Amino acid sequence: MSKRVLVSSLIGVAVLGGVAAGGLATASAASKPTVENGSARYVAPAHGAPGALTYTADVRDDSGIRGLKVLAWPASSRLDPTAAELRHAEDATCRSTTAGTSRCTYTLRVTEEEEAELAEGTWYVSALATAEDGDTAFVPRGASFAVTR
Predict the structure, then answer these.
(1) Residue 44 phi/psi, 5° resolution?
(2) β-bridge partners, 40
(3) Residue 108 to residues 52, 54, 95, 99, 120, Cα–Cα distance (Å)
(4) In the chain, what's the furthest Cα-to-Cα distance?
(5) Which of 52, 53, 85, 92 lies closest to 69, judged by CA?
(6) Distance between CA 23 and CA 7 in Å, rounded?
(7) Which pLDDT tens digit goes with each residue over 26-68?
(8) 36, 70, 107, 142: which has the fewest Cβ within 10 Å?
């Protein structure tokens, strides 16, 4: 076998091996979780019946969803929650819709007494999704809603 054919063959094997390895790396690369379609709804308490804040979002990750932490905060507070702070926030209830997707809902009941202490105006909802593989996705302002009296 000539050296020219041998060198060409070795280059071809190296190129094909690199393409195959790159393809495997791409195929096995884990994705980060995503939080999509987030929406918040606030219903004020009335006539002795409690009101509620409800936040709902679709959370996706290839490994599945472990959970979603949620924090509602008034814009007037100038809070700027971080992912680390949300690790201690309240849990949403997540239900699987497909192998890698869950619909997560957080509901907070609000009495008339509690509403009287709420800041009026715009509020934001921050969320921290955690996948089964431990990856996280932080959404600093996943939705907004208004508190009015």
Answers:
(1) -70, 150
(2) 55
(3) 5, 7, 18, 28, 17
(4) 94
(5) 92
(6) 24
(7) 445 668 999 999 999 999 999 999 999 999 999 999 999 999 9
(8) 36
Contact 130, 66 (CB under 8 A): yes
CB atoms closer than 10 angstroms to residue 104: 23
Which of 37, 38, 42 has its CA nearest to residue 121? 42
The pLDDT assigned to 149 comes to 82
DSSP state at residue 133: T
* Cβ-based neighbours of 80, under 8 Å, separated by 6 or more: 140
- pTM, to two decimals: 0.79
The fraction of the chain above a pLDDT of 70, given in percent, is: 80
